[in-house]
Amino acid sequence: MIDKNAPIGVFDSGIGGLTVVREIMRQIPNEKIVYFGDTARVPYGSKSRETVTRFCRQIVRFLQAHEVKTIVAACNTASAYALDELEKEIDIPMIGVVKPGAKAAAAATRNGRLGVIATEATIGSRIYNQYIQQLNPGITILGKACPLFVPLVEEGLLQDPVTDEIARRYLAELIDSDIDTLILGCTHYPLIRSTIGRVMGEHVTLVNPAYETAMELKEMLREKEILNTEAPQLGSNQYQFYVSDTTDKFIRFANSIMKYGVLSAKQVNIEEY
Amino acid sequence: MIDKNAPIGVFDSGIGGLTVVREIMRQIPNEKIVYFGDTARVPYGSKSRETVTRFCRQIVRFLQAHEVKTIVAACNTASAYALDELEKEIDIPMIGVVKPGAKAAAAATRNGRLGVIATEATIGSRIYNQYIQQLNPGITILGKACPLFVPLVEEGLLQDPVTDEIARRYLAELIDSDIDTLILGCTHYPLIRSTIGRVMGEHVTLVNPAYETAMELKEMLREKEILNTEAPQLGSNQYQFYVSDTTDKFIRFANSIMKYGVLSAKQVNIEEY
Hints:
- 2 copies of one chain form a homodimer.
- Chain A is α/β, with parallel strands linked by helices.
- The first copy, chain A, has 2 domains: 151 residues, Rossmann fold; 111 residues, Rossmann fold, CATH 3.40.50.
- Chain A is built from 12 helices and 10 strands.
- In chain A, the strands form 2 sheets. The first copy, chain A, has a 6-stranded parallel sheet with strand order 4-3-1-2-9-10, sandwiched between helices.
- In chain A, helix 1 crosses helix 11, helix 5 packs across helix 7 and helix 5 packs across helix 11.
- The relative contact order of chain A is 0.19.
- At the A-B interface, helix 2, helix 8 and helix 9 of A face helix 2, helix 8 and helix 9 of B.
């Protein structure tokens, strides 16, 4: 028996997962959330499957210690590398961002030609290809790693000629390949959605897995009858944020992208989990 | 009594410290080296003093387990944040890259106006300012964090219009300030030395702390009479490389910048130290 009043655990390598949190807040506003961002060891996207899985296992233990009812891996790299292994190890449901993004993209393409942009790890894992070809083996998938997008976003160059130039280089082969749908396969990429959209052209549909994941999470909680149906009480600490590095930078970024004021976060030594 | 035949321990947040290793190999070719690169938790330059110091303390324990005769913090951020604290905790000499760089820059400037480019952490610590003003309080120091330089180097854009454009932006205020000497205060930056030199102009002297650190290390070992005077025996495993993530990517990078072939590296779970 899972307690439907328990919080949802959400984690990411750092701050990108807040784009998923933002969608969960919008779509299922009654839910409590415990967020963990691994800001001491960020990024994951350039690291190995083994290391990322070890880090994620520690985070799952941390979230379980907070008695969450479900865990959302709000990070494409974590979803690509660690989800299959970790969901076997726990007895609460776990979802990632890759499957919902793959499903939405497979439904969106009209010409059967799909692009995925993501970290080196996510592209190297070929996980989007696997999920999409399970859904529809006729779809052609082209993947492209875009390692500079995260640092450019974190440097605040959201609307900038340098970001345009890098986007044109990374996306050139996808444009030449005549795709009609593009998955933004890293949680930072929706923050440069307008640049990516301009470079790709209006005829290309951009799929944001953060949005799709919140939809799928809501559906899953409904099916299992563990949606929290009570509106949260005032002052009830509905959203709790934890990070592995100090909290100041995290709080600044969180407040720059969330409507809800993130007033505080706590630092945790995740290596102890 | 320190064993002069023991190896020198060198560490960095990842791969950048190999530029220091390269200089040590050139300047004191008889020495054995044990290198540790924290590739699972890289980078350090955007993280807090507390977290960086905790990571460095684990690495110092790891190197001490290898019975090194001295430890070189071949990372500006580690030198800025952790060196003062950690050198008090151990009984072998420890040197960083900041003091040697500061000393060389203070000696090089003619107009008393000096620039430092480095990570956010190193610039925020104002450590170069402190050391240089101890040496000569009349020197004016201007610091500038350049967070995109490391990702640009790691993406291989060493000679590229995008790197030129980013360099022009970061360096504009230093050029306007009429500095005549610039410290490359991050171990990755010597790899884009030609771009930085072109943007700054020929009249600006670039100081590479990697080179200065190897010089100072040699001097320190001589003073303490622990220079290794014997040439290493053939097949004696003179250089050992350890990393916290998997080894493949590290070995590729190491071989791209070192003349000596880095044939192997070992993975270590540094969180256990």
